[in-house]
Amino acid sequence: MGNWFAAAVLAADGMTEIDAHLFQSPTGIAPVLQVHPTRRCNLACLHCYTSSAPSVSEQLDWNLLSTCVQDAALLGYRQLAVSGGEPLLYKQLPELLSQARALGMLTSITTNGMLATPQRWAQISDFLDVVAVSIDGSEAEHDAMRGQPGAYAKTLAHLAVIRASGVPFGLIFTLTQHNVDSLEFVVQLAAQQGARSVQVHPLTLYGRAAETLADARPDGLELLVALAEAKRLGQQLGVTVHVDAISLQQLHTYHRHLVPSLPVTRLPEVAPILIVQADGAVVPLTHDVNHQLWLGSLHDAPLHLLAPAWMQQGRADLLAQACAQTWDELSQHYHAGQPVAIQNAAVYWYDEVAASTRRHLGMPVMRCVQAA
Ligand code: SF4
User: What spacing in Å lies between the alpha carbon of 310 and ligand 1's midpoint?
Assistant: First the structure.
């Protein structure tokens, strides 16, 4: 699955499109705690950036995760976005969602939908604010990406269960360099199925995706076409379509939303998305940010110790500087008085920041904080 929260569902519920862009929401309105509690999955998709599969058993201990969610709420994270692996395979998913709700957080899951049986769905639907269901195009395209004939049909069958529960849902589509033409099919499907929106998320070249689809990351032109198509299809079919990409012009206009001020005083200022991986690693923004900027592992210390230690080590400011540097480099293309290079006409901001951290911060070195 695309593994990102459907920001566009919230857009349909009142966020404007530009709000969604501002918050760059792979995972919704910032700040978001994005949790991957398990890498176990009923599928082994080509584009999976967590390398999840039926044979993988790695998952987060419930007590560690529960403490982390409490800590994150105290740090200012307002949403819990659960992805995977397949979240429905995490035994304590109802407890996880219920706890987040009790802490005042909005809740979401991203799912391939195939395991949304009436019994399992009834356990979680009361604790869910929104659901993102992954669809990769037509039945043939979807099943090819999923590596399983019949996957599309099973997902569609269970969409009825989700719809009947009344939980707002959207579709999430992973954009590659080769599939923008499939977006129309997905938006039409969303309209037919009663989905509130479609979120288009650029392929993340990490995990299995980096091995199987190494040449398929969408370039700036593909992102630009997706933005134009999203606008056209949204108007034509009455479905909110949000692309996790911004044009260079938007980048310039919204500098203050993208580049945190120094010094960073609160974690969510520089990490509006905080990722917790199934192995316990805590990562700001996106999985492929330089490992030097990872906060550490929940197996070494809880989040309420990792976060202040990370700030004190100056890593929050380093990440903010990487945002500023990314903005400067991209902005130069826009201001050079030359025709804007077409491949840079639109960008996925977090990928650009992550690439900048890898370019400028040297070899990845993971540093952990020991529990006091
Ligand atoms: S359904 Fe999602 S988590 Fe499972 S293998 Fe596919 S992309 Fe990965």
Answer: 30
Which atom of ligand 1 lies at the shortest distance from residue 41's CA?
4
How does DSSP classify residue 27? Answer: S
Do the beta carbons of residue 132 and residue 174 sit within 8 Å?
A: no
Residue 187 · residue 234 · CB < 8 Å: yes
Are 9 and 54 within 8 A, CB to CB?
A: no
Per-residue confidence band for 339, with pLDDT thresholds at 50, 70 and 90: low
Split at pLDDT 50, 70, 90, the class of 79 is very high
Quote the CA–CA distance of 297 and 71 in Å, as a whole number. Answer: 14
DSSP string, 104-165: T-EEEEEE-STT--HHHHHHHGGG-SEEEEE--SSHHHHHHHHT-TTHHHHHHHHHHHHHHH
Alpha helices in the chain (DSSP H): 7-12, 17-23, 62-75, 93-102, 118-124, 139-146, 151-165, 183-193, 208-212, 220-237, 248-253, 255-258, 267-270, 303-312, 315-335, 349-360
Q: Can you give the pLDDT at residue 251?
A: 79
Give the mutation target among 43, 203, 206 for probing the ligand 1 site: most ligand atoms within 8 A of CB: 43
The residue extents of the domains of the chain are 1-372
Q: Omega of the bond prior to 118 within 30 degrees of 0, cis?
A: no
Residue with CA nearest ligand 1 atom 8: 48
Give the nearest ligand 1 atom to 2 CA.
Answer: 7
Residue 340 has pLDDT above 80, yes or no: no
Nearest CA to ligand 1 atom 7: 1
Residue 338 clears pLDDT 60, i.e. is over it: no
Quote the ligand 1 centre to 163 CA distance (angstroms). 21
Please state, in angstroms and rounded to a whole number, the distance separating the CA atoms of residues 187 and 244.
16
Select the CATH number that applies to the domain covering 1-372 from these four: 3.40.50.920, 3.20.20.70, 2.60.40.10, 3.40.50.300. 3.20.20.70
Kindly state the greatest CA–CA separation across the chain.
60
Predicted local confidence at residue 227, as pLDDT: 93
Ligand 1: centre distance to CA 41 (Å)? 6
Q: Which of 34, 45, 49, 133 to mutate to test the pocket of ligand 1 (most atoms within 8 A of CB)?
A: 45
Q: For residue 146, which atom of ligand 1 is closest to its CA?
A: 6
